[in-house]
């Protein structure tokens, strides 16, 4: 057994924690504090599992506006990527840009044109861009209509008519999905 | 940070302690959570497909179309009107605000039983009908196993 120089000896009347403070840090308050990361790792693991289960590769296709309430539907299908036309009582937007106002929607078709000109031009532009970017693919003519449930059919038919004139005959109405029913059974 | 597994190894013998380094695991979790939060889809929406069919739309087939029954569901202020060729079956509203969608669905299911090969139905709506009711009607039609739904203006239905 090797021989060492003698160190400080503790006396029996002196409390251990007092001496360890004095000897260890020169009388100053200890700054070291162990951080327990077990709870943090558990939280992160649960969060990752939840987000992985709800992950969707298609991403957010339609951003619902705050003043727009969609109707419910039982027989729904998965939403595909397509130009999104939002219709409320006050405004019509295409991919977030305003293309018509409520006055245009309420205009009497007997006295004016049923076509919404700016919407029509933008849709035709999108169609031409698609054909340029996808020369080997057929243009499917799909458009997503995100319509507030209180909008009257009089306004909706103008938007549908404009979309049909622009070459978008395949109209998909955005709906809130409920429990899947007849469409799945029929397929 | 590491996890130490103490097996009580004594002095002079080989230590069996193994420190598991969790730092890369925490880094991985942090990166994954950040990525998944950015790409998360919070609003799940769906679609209801409707075709736009004009009155007497020409077929793209070269052969002349075989005569088939034409089924139209007209939505007006008084209720539904189920039109099969020239036969009309009005389905009045239950009360001031509510339409009798269940009765419509019952009638459509009976039609489907008698016309198994028929899949297309035209929904014709008047101008004052709200979009919510139009969707509800289309939903009832699809529930009755008519998968091909077209939406037109009631004025263009010719009824």
Describe this structure in words.
The complex is a heterodimer of chains A (187) and B (159). Chain A has helices at 16-25, 38-53, 102-106, 117-133, 153-165, 182-186; strands at 72-73, 77-78, 84-87, 91-94, 97-101, 142-147, 170-177. Chain A is α/β, with parallel strands linked by helices and 187 residues long. Chain A has a 6-stranded mixed sheet with strand order 1-7-6-3-4-5. In chain A, α4 packs across α5. The longest helix of chain A is centred in the last third of the chain and has 17 residues, at 117-133. Chain A is rod-shaped, with a radius of gyration of 34 Å. With 159 residues, chain B is an alpha/beta fold. Helices cover 27% and strands 26% of the residues of chain B. In chain B, α2 runs parallel beside α3 (131-143). Chain B starts with a strand and ends in a 6-residue tail after the last strand. Mean pLDDT of chain B is 82; it is low at 4-9 and 55-61. The chains are: A alpha/beta (187), B alpha/beta (159). Chains A and B meet through α2, β1, β2, α5 and β7 of A and α1, β3 and α3 of B. β7 (170-177) of chain A pairs antiparallel with β3 of chain B, so a sheet runs across the interface.
N-end to C-end Cα span of chain B: 78 Å
List how many beta strands of chain A DSSP finds: 7
Please give the order of strands in the largest beta sheet of chain B. Answer: 6-5-4-7-8
**Class derived from helix and strand content of chain A:** alpha/beta
Radius of gyration of chain B: 31 Å
- Poorly predicted regions of chain A are 181-187
Shape of chain A: rod-shaped
Mean pLDDT of chain B: 82
Strand order of the largest sheet of chain A: 1-7-6-3-4-5
Structure summarized in a few sentences:
Chain A is α/β, with parallel strands linked by helices and 187 residues long.
């Amino acid at each position: 057994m090797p021989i060492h120089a003698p160190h400080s000896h503790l006396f029996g009347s002196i409390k251990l924690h007092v001496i360890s403070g004095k000897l260890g840090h020169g009388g100053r308050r200890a700054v070291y504090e162990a951080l327990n990361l077990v709870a943090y790792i558990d939280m992160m693991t649960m969060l990752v599992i939840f987000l992985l289960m709800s992950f969707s590769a298609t991403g957010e296709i339609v951003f619902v506006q705050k003043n727009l309430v969609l109707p419910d539907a039982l027989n729904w299908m998965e939403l595909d990527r397509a130009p999104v036309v939002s219709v409320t009582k006050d405004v019509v937007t295409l991919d977030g840009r305003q293309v018509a106002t409520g006055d245009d929607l309420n205009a009497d078709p007997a006295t004016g044109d049923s076509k919404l000109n700016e919407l029509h031009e933008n849709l035709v532009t999108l169609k031409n861009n698609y054909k340029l970017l996808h020369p080997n693919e057929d243009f499917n003519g799909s458009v997503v209509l995100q319509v507030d449930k209180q909008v009257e059919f009089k306004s909706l038919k103008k938007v549908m008519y404009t979309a049909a004139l622009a070459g978008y005959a395949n109209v998909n109405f955005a709906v809130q999905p409920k429990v899947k029913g007849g469409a799945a059974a029929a397929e | 940070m590491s996890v130490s597994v103490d097996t009580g190894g004594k002095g002079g013998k080989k230590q069996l302690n193994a420190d598991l380094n969790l730092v890369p695991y925490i880094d991985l979790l942090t990166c994954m959570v950040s990525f998944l939060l950015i790409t998360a889809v919070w609003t799940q929406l769906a679609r209801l497909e409707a075709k736009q069919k004009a009155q007497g739309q020409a077929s793209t087939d070269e052969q002349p179309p075989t005569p088939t029954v034409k089924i139209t569901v007209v939505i007006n202020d008084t209720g539904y009107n189920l039109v099969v060729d020239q036969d009309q079956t009005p389905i009045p509203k239950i009360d001031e605000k509510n339409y009798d969608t269940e009765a419509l669905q019952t009638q459509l299911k009976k039609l489907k039983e008698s016309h198994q090969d028929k899949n297309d139905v035209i929904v014709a709506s008047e101008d004052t009908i709200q979009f919510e009711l139009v969707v509800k009607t289309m939903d009832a039609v699809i529930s009755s196993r008519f998968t091909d739904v077209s939406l037109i203006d009631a004025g263009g239905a010719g009824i």
